[in-house]
TrEMBL record:
InterPro entries: RtcB-like_sf
Taxonomic source organism: Sphaerisporangium krabiense
Gene3D superfamilies listed in its UniProt record: tRNA-splicing ligase RtcB
Protein name as catalogued: 3'-phosphate/5'-hydroxy nucleic acid ligase
GO terms (BP aspect): RNA processing
Region (Disordered): 134-154
Length: 437
């Protein structure tokens, strides 16, 4: 068992680095850095605790002849953001009309919505190939296209017929996480990242919770038990932090990596299908248009990169550039009903490999932080969950701290502020294992 800790690099300004070092998260990350074959741990400004495994906002690298695979380094493996500029100007909609629009969208995408019509897709082909199994988008211009990793192959055969039927029904829904609507407020007019001032921008944030539930039931316990039997990780870490793993050559590790690739592919496909449903629902309200709908960005933020001798995982980590190396607008998201930002690489983005956290920071700040101008009253916004004013204020402050850190360290700079317009958060967490009635 390794007794040498890997280096921990914190990509944050002095204030957030200090807050991180003083928090319990630092001790968790130090334990991660001491795990067998871990050779590097990178931490971003929006690092935050999770109920299981490695915190979000963290990338872990393992390197060896037979590097370890740690399944709880990324449990929400299929998650990502599809960010679409809708071309809709919502300024002419009254608050009552906005609520009608939101209700129609909710009916079209809610995982348990009785009126939702599941798309007619070959779910086995989707699990094997993701977006490559689907027709080109009809509701929006894909532009440079979604950034589904090329060459990735899934394995539909991992799952029984019942789970595949459930996944077919969940496709195109918000089966976990949220869909958020914003109006665009460009901050840098020469670099508006393809948005029109005031247009409606939609963010689809979902993945594959039913696949994740399958892994919890069928893989995690077996992998943890085998890890303990082989004495690869000390029992206290397995019990307290659910940190366990097996060498990449182990058959259970190989199954886990196939599961991870399959989940990623399904996540890309279901976000695209959900976006198409949302755009169709908006169009039914005959909105005033300032542009055609177009994809700004579609990329994952839960991933494993695996090649011989090296694995790297990212939980809540996403690229600032596309597969072609060109800068792309990247979402750094806030909390429920707060604002968010689109950012682009800063002058020192290369220091992080042009990677950035996905947002949703949870820092307990200890100094006043001013809210940006123009934020709407959150109590006016269409939403399906109750407003917690204290959490909203903290969310605003913590997002501002995170984006200020990105800017001051030169990792990324904000170019568009996204002002909240409506928010749908999936609350039916048990739906991941049960079909609709």
């Amino acid at each position: 068992m390794s007794v040498v800790s890997a280096p921990v690099v914190v990509h944050a300004d002095a204030y957030l680095t200090g807050r991180f070092d003083a928090s319990p998260l630092r001790r968790v990350i130090d334990r991660v850095a001491g795990l067998p074959t871990v050779t590097a741990v990178d931490v971003w400004a929006d690092v935050a605790p999770k109920t299981l495994g490695v915190p979000t906002g963290v990338a872990v690298t393992t390197s060896a002849d037979d590097p370890m695979v740690y399944p709880t380094a990324v449990t929400d493996i299929a998650c990502g953001f599809a960010v679409i500029a809708t071309g809709v100007d919502p300024a002419g909609w009254s608050r009552e009309r906005a609520r009608h629009v939101f209700a129609d969208v909710r009916a079209a995408i809610g995982v348990t919505s009785p009126g939702r019509i599941a798309p007619d897709v070959d779910v086995d082909a989707v699990l094997d190939g993701g977006l490559t199994a689907l027709p080109d988008p009809t509701g929006y211009d894909p532009g440079p296209g979604a950034e589904q990793p090329p060459g990735l192959r899934g394995d539909a055969g991992l799952f029984d017929a019942g789970l595949r039927r459930l996944l077919a029904d969940h496709a195109g829904s918000v089966s976990g996480h949220f869909v958020a609507f914003y109006t665009a407020q460009p901050l840098d007019m020469p670099d508006m990242s393809g948005v029109v001032d005031g247009e409606l921008v939609v963010v689809v944030h979902t993945g594959a919770p039913a696949i994740r539930a399958w892994a919890y039931e069928n893989l995690f316990g077996r992998m943890a038990g085998r890890c303990l039997d082989l004495r690869l990780v000390e029992p206290g870490l397995v019990g307290e932090h659910q940190l366990f793993g097996l060498p990449a050559s182990d058959p259970l590790s190989q199954t886990f990596l196939r599961f991870a690739d399959t989940a990623v592919l399904y996540g890309y496909a279901t976000r695209h299908l959900c976006a198409e449903e949302i755009l169709a629902a908006l169009e039914r309200h005959r909105p005033r248009r300032v542009a055609a709908p177009r994809l700004l960005r579609h990329t994952g933020h839960g991933w494993y990169e695996h090649r011989p001798g090296r694995l790297r995982s990212g939980r809540g980590i996403q690229p600032l550039t596309g597969p072609d190396g060109e800068a792309r607008p990247t979402l750094v998201v806030g909390a429920d009903r707060t604002h968010s930002y689109l950012v682009v690489p800063g002058p020192h983005g290369d220091l992080t490999g042009n990677l950035v956290g996905h947002g949703i920071p949870m820092w307990a700040h200890d100094r006043p932080v001013a809210a940006p101008p123009g934020l709407p009253d959150p109590s006016w916004l269409p939403a399906n969950t109750p407003l917690d004013a204290r959490l909203w204020r903290d969310g605003v402050a913590n997002l501002e701290l995170t984006v200020a850190s990105l800017a001051s360290t030169g990792v990324a700079r904000p170019v568009v502020r996204l002002l909240p317009w409506a928010n749908y958060k999936e609350t039916c967490v048990d739906a991941v294992t049960r079909p609709r009635a």
